[in-house]
Amino acid sequence: HLVKGYDGLHKIGPELNNVGAKVDAVWLVDWLKNPHNYMPNTRMPNFDLSDDDIVSVASFLTANTQAHKLAAQMTLKGNAENGKKVFDTVGCRGCHATEMNEATMASRGRGPNLSRVAAKVSASSWIYDWIKNPKNYSEHALMPSLRLSDSEAADITSYLATMSPDYKN
Fold first, then answer.
1. How far apart are CA 136 and CA 131, in angstroms?
2. I want to staple 41 with a disulfide (CB 3.0 to 4.6 A). Which of 50, 67, 102, 105 is the partner?
């Protein structure tokens, strides 16, 4: 993770300064308890923390989340079926998988696997804002701006909001 004072080093994990604005608190506790339960091929190690330590780390991360203002507000109701079509046609699959299987788990160096993103992210409004302007959340984001219309972004958001059918906390 990016740590002040170590800015010149290659980071492996995402920035954590806004994590409380992004992830669901229950998901965060589950992630810290066993990251491989959510994403079997994650590089995040299981530190075998006690339940008290997990709650302490999760509380620290959420309490120290910097204020985050959404740059794009989702004002349209999206259509998940159309969102899947847009996701498939604008190039999202070039970096992201939406299935949890051997082939998608083996691919590293691309965007995260989104098959369970609805269990992770605290609100659809965050997903919409990310899709419209990834740099609003993180200036280091590798995801490009796809210049989607509000309707296309709302549709993809609705599609991604359906992603977590086989994940249990």
1. 10
2. 105
Torsion of CA 42, 43, 48, 50, to 10 degrees: -80
Encoded tokens for 93? 């699959």
pTM of the model: 0.82
Where is average pLDDT lowest: 1-15, 41-55, 144-158? 1-15
Torsion sign across C-alpha atoms 88, 92, 24, 104 = positive
Across the range 98-115, mean pLDDT stands at: 71
Instruction: Check whether 163 has a pLDDT greater than 80.
Output: yes
- Class of residue 9 by CB neighbours under 10 A (exposed 0-12, middle 13-18, buried 19+): exposed
